[in-house]
Amino acid sequence: MLIKEVIDIIEDFAPPAYAESFDNVGLLVGDKRAKVNGALITLDTLESVVEEAIEKNCNLIISFHPIIFSGLKKLTGRDYVERTILKAIKHDIAIYAIHTALDNQYKGVNDMISEKIGLTNRKILIPRKDSIKKLTTFVPNKQADEVRKALFEAGGGSIGNYDHCSFNLQGEGSFKPNEAANPVIGNRGEVHLEEETQIGLTFPAHLEPKIIRRLFESHPYEEVAYEITALENKNQQLGMGMIGELENAEDEKDFLQRIKSTFNCGCIRHSEFREKTIKKVAVLGGSGSFAINNAKAAGADVYLTADLKYHDFYKGDKDLLLADIGHYESEQFTKDLLHSYLTKKISNFALILADTNTNPIKYI
């Protein structure tokens, strides 16, 4: 396989269009036309990870965090970022980063955390806006089924746990082809009336090019009439964080002790105990202070995240227990998620979980 083919599989799972605007996802180093010998899956890309890739004959590193985050003006090896990139280039190793494109997926980072905790009735904590579009088009009645089928196959008409969703109205369309036209139906210079079906369906925003292509391929008319509208609806299958419920309520201290053991935390920093049981749990892997109010508004008893600052711990008041379980600790199972997904899709070469522990934080 070529690196490009692997990227296509990754981006089908976590489209880069849904990464946060501040992020730097995608192929960061390497030639997408190169063949893949093996892929090393890691949380971070460091010099030690590149060395592991060399040792294991992997010329592609699939990383959660991007090693290049802000702009680089020089490559002189002056810091760990530049040294890592230079080593990767020297050994023809490509680096792909997925980061918030995966954070925002329903079956992504936070679903993995929720699975480890044992949460049921899971929902996205902060559903994403501006990610759903609507197509409206007009098709002769006889070809309506064919066009609908093509749009469904392209990914249109999926809403949550339902697919093949559309709304159809029948009416009469009119048009007059000019002398330069080559009409499939009707005659040049004459007004034609045609019994048509108006098809309306929604689709994920990142699929727009594919939806338009299939519309034009399947539609019988020389000139295709269609409209695309951006919807304000929140996407319940896309966004940051997750909230769910424990099967049985747990004591606060017992719950945090279980989390500490499950995630192998060096310690858990938390706000004052509320002296209440834990039933509803909100999670957000990585830096999640921005979502404290969202967790509170959702009625969570506890919010698990990382990188909370001193004053953040006041924000829970008595309504919410805040727990900082560590950045690395909260995201550590992400590489298992990627490995599991890719091994179901790829059998052409070795997909290897990195052994290198990239957690920069140590505990004493």
TrEMBL record:
UniProt entry keywords in alphabetical sequence: Metal-binding
Domain of life where this protein originates: Bacteria
Cellular component GO terms held in the UniProt record: cytoplasm
Keyword Metal-binding: yes
Entry's Gene Ontology molecular function annotations: metal ion binding
Residues engaged in binding a divalent metal cation: H65, D103, H327, E331
Family: Belongs to the GTP cyclohydrolase I type 2/NIF3 family.
Subunit structure: Homohexamer.
NCBIfam families documented for this protein: YbgI_SA1388 (TIGR00486)
Protein name as catalogued: GTP cyclohydrolase 1 type 2 homolog
Organism: Salegentibacter echinorum
